[in-house]
Design goal:
about 350 residues; alpha/beta; 5-stranded mixed beta sheet; 10 strands; MYG1_exonuclease; Metal-dependent protein hydrolase
Length: about 350
């Protein structure tokens, strides 16, 4: 972490990144970590300051300076007139969204080796939607649901979840372990420790971004074609199209919801899949899972639970109550179950459809 000494910064070969000092947030922590995924910034030092003269020495500035100018590489969103959003979205960008909008495709290529084309474009949109936009919303005070509508509906939280987010984790890095010891430290020492905490926070949030990106590139993206083929062949397992059979475990939910929205449904076929079947492993004698499809992506309500009498039941007792040999288990919440064979899992799904 660079100190706030302009003379030292001018000697550094890699482009200097600047952001503000003081209390830090998830958006600039992510913005800095994303920049460093590019070869240009891989070894870039960082200066954290609010001094305009020092910021002038920086190659790229994020989340400070009240200027958004792509050509000058200034990416702040705090100015009154700022209202930029990611294409196709309505959430005002933070420094994370700005950096991602301008550098995202290059970052994806750098991390995954994906070349420009349809797959990169799909992944660029997906990562913004599923990961980056929440950072933008959090920093700009945008709620996932309209608070007035929630209040009017009389809805209340079942539990407190403020501490259960990346933003809350980043916020914890703001605080020193011992305020009593801080009283005996110089201003420079306190700044160095604050910078070190920011570095750890930025590393943490950057790691989450890379995990999200690499998983989407290596598993989610290739699953698109496999889910499409399974969707097109679903009528062989149920004439109403309520059962989807996959060749192995994969990220299927996003692709299924998209296919259901975009595909013309033949007469006599149900518009929604109720259950998805997949093997536990790639071994020939693998057990099979049956998964109830959620009403919404990521939600805990299912379109149709596995039957109530099966819930929380295992092994021989499950085989007896379901009437299907080879029962392994059904979760007490009714969202997933298992059978020793594909034929058994299929029979369970077919019975569940009619239950």
């Amino acid at each position: 972490m660079a100190s706030e000494n302009p003379a030292k910064k001018l000697k550094m070969d890699s482009p200097l990144i600047g952001t503000h000092s003081g209390h830090f947030h998830a958006d600039e922590a992510l913005a800095v970590s994303m920049l460093r995924l590019l070869p240009t910034y891989a070894n870039s030092p960082l200066v954290r300051t609010r001094d305009p003269e020092i910021l002038k020495t920086c190659h790229t500035v994020v989340d400070v300076g009240a200027v958004y100018d792509e050509n000058a590489r200034h990416f702040d969103h705090h100015q009154r007139e700022f209202n930029t959003t990611f294409p196709g979205h309505s959430t005002k960008l933070s420094s994370a969204g700005l950096v991602y909008m301008h550098f995202g495709k290059d970052i994806i290529s750098s991390v995954t080796n994906l070349q420009p084309g349809a797959d990169l474009d799909i992944l660029y949109e997906k990562i913004y939607t599923d990961f980056i936009e929440a950072f933008d919303a959090n920093d700009n005070g945008v709620n996932a649901f309209d608070p007035k509508a929630v209040e009017a509906a009389g809805l209340t939280k079942k539990f407190e979840d403020r501490g259960f987010s990346i933003a809350s984790v980043v916020n914890r890095y703001n605080y020193s372990n011992s305020k009593a010891q801080d009283e005996n430290k110089t201003k420079d020492q306190l700044q160095q420790e604050e910078d070190a905490r920011f570095a750890r926070a930025s590393s943490f949030v950057g790691e989450q971004f890379v995990i999200e990106l690499t998983d989407r590139a290596s598993a989610w993206l290739p699953a698109r074609n496999a889910v499409k083929l399974a969707y097109e062949g679903r009528l062989q397992y149920d004439p109403k199209g309520r059962i989807l059979v996959l060749p192995d475990g994969m990220p299927w939910a996003d692709h299924l919801y998209t296919l259901e929205k975009e595909t013309a449904i033949p007469q006599g076929v149900e518009p929604q899949v109720l259950y998805v079947l997949f093997p536990e492993t790639t071994e020939p004698d693998s057990k099979w899972r049956i998964r109830a499809v959620s009403k919404e992506n990521g939600g805990f309500q299912n379109r149709k639970d596995l039957p109530d009498p099966w819930k929380g039941v295992r092994d021989e007792q499950l085989s007896e109550v379901s009437g299907v040999p080879g029962g392994v288990f059904v979760h007490a919440a009714g969202f997933i179950g298992g059978n020793k064979t594909f034929d058994g899992a299929l029979a369970m799904a077919q019975k569940a459809c009619e239950f």
